[in-house]
Design brief:
This protein is mainly beta. The protein is about 5% helix and about 50% strand. The strands form two sheets. Strands 2, 4, 5, 6, 9, 10 and 11 form a seven-stranded mixed beta sheet that branches.
Length: about 130
């Protein structure tokens, strides 16, 4: 069973930065994508950014391109999301997620991360609040 533990959320002023961390355990053999999702009130979770542990390919939703950077330290089984130039619209609970890419061999992380449907495991979430 995959377990994901997040850290790094908090309160920051607009224009500030935060770094989220997600440490995974219980990963089976094969390629996984690890990423971050958030949800707006009344909607289901949407992908913010993901990274393939296999080839390092990444996905960013349009609203965070140029501001957020995802990276992976496979030796530590940890994925980081560096969030810069934060705006109040970025405020949300951010959930770490894993996708077993070996079950979706015809799809890249850019397709899989755009939806919550392929996600196999979720973390508990970490709150990010950006004040204006």
């Amino acid at each position: 069973e995959v377990q994901l533990v997040e850290s790094g959320g908090g309160l920051v002023q607009a224009g500030g930065s935060l770094r989220l961390s997600c440490t995974a355990s219980g990963l089976a053999a094969g390629d996984y994508a690890i990423g971050w999702y958030h949800e707006a009130p009344g909607t289901w979770r949407k992908g913010v950014s993901c990274i393939s542990r296999g080839d390092g390919s990444t996905y960013y939703t349009d609203s965070v391109k140029g501001r957020f950077t995802i990276s992976s330290d496979n030796a530590k089984n940890t994925v980081y999301l560096q969030m810069n130039n934060l705006t109040p619209e970025d405020s949300s609970v951010y959930y770490c997620a894993s996708i077993a890419m070996m079950y979706y061999s015809n799809y890249g992380v850019d397709i899989l991360c755009a939806s919550a449907n392929p996600v196999g495991s979720w973390g508990r979430g970490t709150q990010v609040t950006v004040s204006s």
